[in-house]
Write a structure and sequence with these properties.
By secondary structure, the chain is of the alpha/beta class. The chain has helices spanning about 5, 10-20, 65-70, 105-120, 145-155, 170-180, 195-210, 220-225, 250-270, 285-295, and strands spanning about 35-40, 50-55, 75-85, 85-90, 125-130, 135, 185-190, 210-220, 230-235, 240-245, 275-280.
Length: about 300
């Protein structure tokens, strides 16, 4: 690790706790290498799982001949086999993510590191990619020692300073879905502060390629419940546009309602498309989020 800032992304004590967790999935993916994840399939492991009817072409070695002698019917033994899957962590580093204190990006980086370490400790293949106007990522990693590559990458990756880059979230996710050979769990970490059709197109591209998509929306408390008043000049961090506004209680209430509806629409979209969704404010202590809140949504177990 190169910088003190990098070290701040994860604490050693938290790492020990994370090693007891796994990232959940309801989908079955072909594992390229042996891992710690358990799946029921016909194989040669020693732990018996169940029986199923024999099908032409099945391996005769797995037929239970004792049952055949009693019932005159062929049954095949199945076993529990351990295998790894690919965990794709997609982190939004566009300019809007640099808002707040702590910034949404710093909080999102901690989420990425924690989830990545859980996958590495589980002997899964972890792929970490940052996106804004383009994709920038690491090669697939496996094993706990790879956490240092992840920390160096996140500790030194710049925040996008391009204007209007957030509109490319759909393009980036589409490109990732097309270029990625190994399907698996895709965890998208972003504020998702774009028009609904933009994030929907990107997430659907991942779904269409059979990824198990999980969405984590990171927002600043100042975005959820702003504490503003009076005559102000507000600047859009992505377009650079400046507007003069008069902040009133009525305007703030209108804003809060629109933000609430926006987040509800994102959640509804995820629910309808069988994607896990979780929203978090940066005011929530990170360890509480990663050890408690995220487990309530069954993203971790």
């Amino acid at each position: 690790m190169k910088t003190d800032k990098t070290n701040m992304l994860i604490e050693p004590d938290l790492m020990k706790m994370l090693e007891k967790l796994s990232i959940t999935t309801k989908k079955l993916f072909p594992g390229a290498m042996k891992g710690k994840r358990r799946s029921v399939k016909r194989g040669s492991s020693v732990e018996f799982a169940d029986y199923r009817d024999y099908q032409p072409g099945d391996d005769f070695r797995f037929i239970d001949w004792n049952i055949y002698a009693r019932l005159d019917k062929l049954f095949l033994k199945t076993f529990i086999e351990e295998e790894n899957i690919y965990i794709h962590i997609l982190l939004d580093v566009s300019s809007s993510m640099n808002f707040g204190s702590p910034s949404k990006l710093e909080y999102a980086k901690k989420i990425a590191v924690a989830l990545g370490y859980i996958g590495l400790a589980d002997l899964d293949m972890v792929v970490l990619t940052a996106f804004s106007e383009s994709l920038n990522g690491l090669r697939p990693m496996r094993g706990k020692d790879q956490i240092f590559k992840m920390l160096d990458f996140l500790g030194n990756i710049p925040v996008s300073d391009e204007r209007n880059t957030k509109s490319l979230i759909d393009d980036c996710l589409k490109k990732y879905a097309i270029k990625t050979s190994y399907r698996g769990i895709a965890i998208v970490i972003s504020d998702f502060l774009v028009a609904p059709n933009i994030y929907e197109n990107g997430l659907k591209a991942l779904l269409d390629k059979n990824f198990d998509v999980k969405v984590i929306q990171v927002l600043s408390d100042d975005e959820i419940d702003p504490k503003l008043s009076g005559e102000l000049k507000l600047q859009d961090v992505e377009t650079g546009e400046i507007k003069e506004v008069t902040i009133t209680d009525r305007l703030l209430e209108k804003y809060r309602k629109r933000m609430s509806n926006f987040c509800a629409n994102l959640k509804d979209f995820c629910t309808k498309n069988n994607m896990a969704y979780l929203r978090v404010s940066t005011v929530i202590p990170f360890e509480d989020f990663i050890l408690k809140e995220i487990r309530k949504e069954q993203i971790l177990a």
